[in-house]
Amino acid sequence: MNREVNEYRQLTERYVRGEGSDEERSNYEELMLSDDSVLTLYMQVLAELDSELPNLPDPEAFADELVGHEQIKPYAHRAALRIQERPKRWYERAIVHYTIAASITMLFLFTGAFNQLLPGETSRDNSLSNTPSYSEHWMEKTTGWLDQLLSRTDK
User: Fold this and answer.
1) Which positions, given as ranges, span the membrane (predicted)?
2) Secondary element (H or E) of residue 141
């Protein structure tokens, strides 16, 4: 375990001094993002090597220039993964769900399915009151089908 910490320390010192290839530096940055102990070690080494690092005449101007630079894009490899994601299929879009829900609601409204939800007698024509509504008809068919299914399983 001590050997591993020593290797991380050497790797961190090389990173702080700007040594190593771009690939090694990128791998170390990934390691810092994924392992908090490596990030803590980086902060310790950075504080210890502060006297070796060059001083910036105007750190705020340097930071503003760095943030405004066009070629610097943090986490570019992760952004590329998001671009490659597949587009939503037609049935995964919210507008499709809203359209289906609205269509079903309109179907129930026009067939009188919601008439049974109102308490009391509604003002319907007497000739229509003798005929069952579509929802009653569907309910009778469904319960009849369920009764047949249950009678088969009981035997």
Assistant:
1) 95-114
2) helix 134-154
Position 77, amino acid: H
The pLDDT, as a whole number, for residue 58 is: 85
Q: Which residues of the chain have pLDDT under 70?
A: 1, 73-84, 114-132, 134, 153-155
Average pLDDT score, the chain: 77
Q: What is the residue type of 31?
A: L
Total number of residues shown for the chain: 155
The pair phi, psi for residue 123, each rounded to 5°, is -85, 85
Domain boundary assignment for the chain: 1-55, 90-118+131-154
- DSSP structure string for 65-113: HHHH-SS--TTHHHHHHHHTSPPPPGGGSHHHHHHHHHHHHHHHHHHTG
**98 CB contacts (<8 Å, ≥6 apart)?**
none
- For 16, 25, 64, 69, 102, the CA distances from 60, given in Å and listed in that order, are 20, 24, 6, 14, 56
